Amino acid sequence: MEHGSVARDTWSLVLAGGDGTRLRELTALLAGAPIPKQYCRITGDRSMLEATLARIAPLGPAERTLVIVNRDHLELASAQLRGVPPENVLVQPCNRDTGPGILWSLLALERRCPGAHVAMFPSDHYVANDAAFRACVRRAAHLVEQHPDKLVLLGIEPDHPAPGYGYVVPSGPQLPGETGPAFHVATFREKPDRALARRILRRGALWNSLVMVFRAARALELVARVRPEAYRALAAAGVDPEAVERHYASGTPWNFSSDFLAHVPNEMVVVRAEDTGWSDWGTRQSIERTFASLKQVPPWQAGASNAPRRSRRAEPPLDARGRLPSP
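Above: the chain's sequence. Below: its structure in C-alpha cell form.
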C-alpha cells in the first residue's frame, strides 16, 4: 500500500517546455502534426504530459503543482492542463533549453512560497510502475528533509551504455539510515561517448532522470554561484513581462544538467530508483526498446508487422492538438 503525499511545503514542478525536435516525424505520424512529444499520445489514451500529471497527483494537490510551457505551445497544452489552476501554468516566451525555464520557475515559486521544497518532473519520460516511482520520490523528499542543503536526484540503473544520456557516478558507501540505496555523488557526466559510458558503468554509474527534489532557495543559491549572469538577469526581471521577454530574446541558452548539475556534484545526493520501468523517450529507438520489453508492437509498426498485437480496442487517430477527435 502506498503512503500519502509528500510534505505540505513541497510543490511539484512539471517541465513541459521542450520542442521535441528529434521525434517530430514520429509525432506527425501519430497526431497528424509534428507536435512536441509531451503532448502526444504515444501509448494508451493519455499524452505523456497527462500521464505525468496523473502519476504525480497522489504526491500533492493540483494547487501545489506548477507546469512550465512555451508560449507557442499554450493552445496545444491548455486542453491537457484543465486540472491545473491557471495561475500555476507558467508560460515562458520560448524554449531556451532547460536552464532558463527551470530557473525562471524556481524564482516564481520562491516569490510565491518562500522556503518551499520542489519535486521536479520532466513530462516526456515513460514510467511503467507509477507506485514504485512515487515511492522513490518520497524517499528523495525524506532525504531533503534530512539533508536540506542537498539536491536529491533519482538515478536509474542503466541496461546499456547509452551515449545520449546523462550519468551520475555514486561516491562512497550508502548513506546510513536510509530505507533504500542513496549515495553522495562523485562525478556527473552528460552525454559521454560509448567508450566512456562503458567505463563509468563499471563504477556503478546511474542514468540522470532529471527527477529531483530540493529546496528552491538552495537551488537558486547554487545557480547564482554557477551561472551568475543568468541568475542576476532573470532575478532582476522579476514579474516584469517585458524584462523577461528581453532576457529570453537575448540570453544565452543553457542546460540545467550539463551547465549546472555537472558543476555541483558535491551538493548532490543520488537515490537509486528501482523497479520503476523508467525510459527517456528521446528517440524512436528508445521508445521501440520499451515496446519490445513490454512485448507490444509500436502503433506505427503494427500495420506492417506480423508480430502479435496486444489486445486492445480500436482507437481513432489524434487530431493536430494531440487529442481524440470529437464524436
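The CA atoms of residues 82 and 272 lie 33 Å apart.
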